[in-house]
Design goal:
Pfam families: LRAT. It comes from Chelonoidis abingdonii. One of its GO terms (biological process) is N-acylphosphatidylethanolamine metabolic process. It is a single chain. By secondary structure, this protein is α+β, with helices and mostly antiparallel strands. Helices cover 30% and strands 10% of the residues. The protein has four helices and three strands. The chain has a three-stranded antiparallel sheet. A hairpin with a 4-residue loop joins strand 1 (20-24) and strand 2 (29-33). The longest helix has 23 residues, at 111-133.
Length: 142
């Protein structure tokens, strides 16, 4: 690929949202996740900008057009782990909030689930307290 002006999403294939993109830099491969419709961010991408993350404990994550990330380098779609890993969904342990906080923060957290657990613990405790006060009679006999 010669330059940004000749960039085409049809080269070397048409990425779909969720595809892993391997970009061949001079001394390493840079990876990106294709999201589909992308927003332009301020500033140009350079190999120096992505290399800053190597020397820091904090990664720089940007949403940019694929053509701007690739620049004059070449790339390919490489979903190499599709047959090995599967992301399962679990409302209480691996929901959409867990997923996005894992991507953003490195740890999957869901405050919704934490609140739900806290409320159910309180409800259980109140139910037990009421039951004990009523002489362990079932709730239906009040």
């Amino acid at each position: 690929m010669a330059a940004n002006d000749s960039f085409s999403l049809a080269y070397p294939g048409s990425p779909q949202p969720g595809d892993l993109i391997e970009i061949f830099r001079a001394a390493y491969q840079h990876w990106a996740l294709y999201l589909g419709v992308m927003m332009q961010t301020e500033g140009a991408v350079s190999s120096l900008a992505s290399a800053k993350s190597v020397f820091s404990r904090k990664a720089l994550v940007k949403m940019q057009l694929l053509k701007d990330v690739v620049g004059s380098d070449t790339y390919r779609i490489k979903n190499k782990y599709d047959d090995i890993y599967e992301v399962s969904y679990d409302l209480l342990g691996n929901n959409c909030e867990h997923f996005v906080t894992l991507l953003r923060c490195g740890e999957g957290v869901s405050e919704q689930v934490e609140v739900l657990w806290a409320c159910s613990c309180v409800a259980y405790g109140v139910g037990r307290l009421v039951s004990d006060c009523m002489g362990n009679r079932p709730f239906s006999h009040w």
